[in-house]
Amino acid sequence: MATQVQAHGLGESYKRKEDARFIRGQGNYVDDVDLPGMLYGDIVRSPYGHALIKSIDISEAMKVPGVLAVITGKDLDAAGLAWMPTLSADTEAVLALDRVHYQMQEVAFVVATSRYAAADGAAAVEVDYEPLPVVVDPKKALEPDAPLLRPDKKDKQPTNHIYHWETGDRAATDAAFAEAAANGVVVRQHMYIPRIHPAPIETCGCVADYQKATGKLTVWMTSQAPHAHRTLFAIVAGLPEHRIRIISPDVGGGFGNKVPIYPGYVCAVVASITTGKPVKWIEDRTENLTSTGFARDYHIKAEIAADKDGTVKALRVYTLADHGAFDAAAQPTKFPAGLFHICTGSYDFKNAFVEVDAAHTNKAPGGIAYRCSFRVTEASYLIERAMDTLAHEVGKDPAQLRLQNFIRPEAFPYRSALNWTYDSGNYEAALQLAMKNVDYEGLRREQAEKRARGELMGIGISSFTEIVGAGPGKHFDIAGIQMFDSCEIRVHPTGKILARIGVQTQGQGHETTFAQIIAAELGISPDDVDVEHGDTDTAPYGLGTYASRSTPVAGAATAIAARKVRDKAKKIAAYLLEVGEEDLEWEPGRFYVKGTPSKGKTIQELAFAAYTNCPPYLEPGLEAVDYYDPPNLTYPFGSYICVVDIDRGTGEVHIRRFMAVDDCGTIINPMVVEGQIHGGLTQGLAPALYEELSYDEHGNVHGSNFQDYLIPTAIETPNWETDKTFTPSPHHPIGAKGIGESPTVGAPQAIANAVVDALSHVGVRHIDIPITPWKVWSILKEKGLTSD
Ligand code: CDP
What we know:
The protein is 28% helix and 25% strand. The protein has 788 residues and is of the alpha+beta class. The strands form ten sheets. It has a seven-stranded mixed β-sheet, sandwiched between helices. It has a five-stranded mixed β-sheet with strand order 9-17-16-15-10. It binds cytidine-5'-diphosphate.
């Protein structure tokens, strides 16, 4: 296990002013890798949002002491490496050739003997640009006279339109809307979910070390999916896969940001192969925020058809997705808009129809599943906001409307109108518990009293359903690789265990919880189990950690591998105890002869026998491996209630209470789950009130540092109150569903609903997130509600 390094700041070791450029906040284990003769890379990036590259002059850069090489797009082109495949089967320029498509796009890679020389060299590269018209609005990108942003693929795609995707029954949905228009109600809500960034405290980076003598490439990198990255490196660089080793033991926050392969990784590999030396490339904060995987950027129109009493009938959704310059969206191949069609949420819609169009713009490529199971955050936000709009329309309390429309507990397994099979759920129980915990009726009385006094208080509900654990290999693959996951267990002769898993922790505590799974299955102490991951030379193949898939998929593999170990131990026990297997009973940690509990063998004794006194008809040793292809996804859920007060002088939203009731089935470790919920809620608060990456008409990106891109700190974060219900997954070996992303998925709309609720009496029906004090104050001003 690599040690976590101390925070890098402007300490004694940093003497030069430029060192400010290298501050990354908390440590970066890749930056701690220090190899003899190591070189450093830095990237020259485009200041323009869209421009032609007329020339690149590297002569001044090569004069900078310590600079050894400058790699350009043309150099890569000569080696056949100018373009790399994205996770959505687009091609992305590793280094720009004749055109830059977004501000901060990679143009050249400078290799030098020190980090400082590389930075100076990058500053000395002279690029002559001819600016082109910039398009940052996807609606404008689809207008007939819009400039073609990707002429490199004009034969296959003659406009900026990337794809149209639709699912559901259009005719039946339209008919339900016609019926509701005549005899019921139809509500329509436009909403924009802005471009945001996962902003992990540790930025991306790698050390690539190609050894000419052995032909082996070792890459230490910030990767959420080391095995998939190894395979992609083999395919992209044409290197033999068995001679590539990706090491990624500690990752300082991923949240989807470390799923794609970025040009910096490829350039470091090329530079190492070229120079024969290890090459380190570490991103700075601005590079991370502006050029790596963004999230969201969905323009949505959601419509609900309902009876006059608010009973929902049909959902219709149209979405325009902004994918930026290259379609590098990270999601299963068969689902171009991810799992967005989980948008019927927790409600029993009989019909639904969803359409998504995607467009190129002059923005960084993406988007990634930021603590989210491939667009489920967008889906959950739209349905929870639209349900509140419906509640206002039919004059019902939003809690009552939800209780009226929930999928009933007895309806599970439930087939949704958009063809998902929800495994289990009890939505009423979660909402009722949340309402009881906050005294919902009391809060509504308080709100009425405050309103009468001119005070602004709002209560917002989000009763979300998640979809995690991608996924059944038949339907889910990334870049063609099926989304199974794995665990390998080795029981040593003394009964101590080494387990290796195909997923990759970024602080979720897999070392603890996966050891607990094995310990529970074998009846031993978790202290006797070590869990390793993140080294492709040792860990079994897996698709990595994102979209809360670790517990549903690798967690299941771990339980099953442990059961395989137990099965073999049983055979050994039968041999040692001289009985048939059918005569044995199991109690945690031990097999004993039925009816004679004193005659038994512990798992440790059986492990020792596996190596010292193994039955002649069995292979010696006690090991097992499982590659688990889940039969279905898991559907965690929750009900959140947020209470806000709004300052009429400043427009500031103060979250007074936030009650989060979550249900992730069987919980392995309550403390780990609690940590996941607290962190996830804070990352749900972030887009609701603070975070946005916006662009001006020139393609300048706003939000390139933590002064402009506002991530919440402990000061902004409210006191999260939590509670649980328990509805196990019927198909997961231990009944566990994922939890990591639920709070991030569920929280934003609870906050948005609360703010809208506070202003609903003056006709406010929607405010786009992030709900900044300025937006709120402007509404207060317009409605004559500001205080002096
Ligand atoms: O894929 P990722 O690890 O991000 O998400 P997850 O599967 O939801 O797990 C996050 C952490 O919570 C892991 O350490 C899990 O083992 C733990 N967890 C748990 O203890 N019980 C659950 N029912 C779900 C997750």
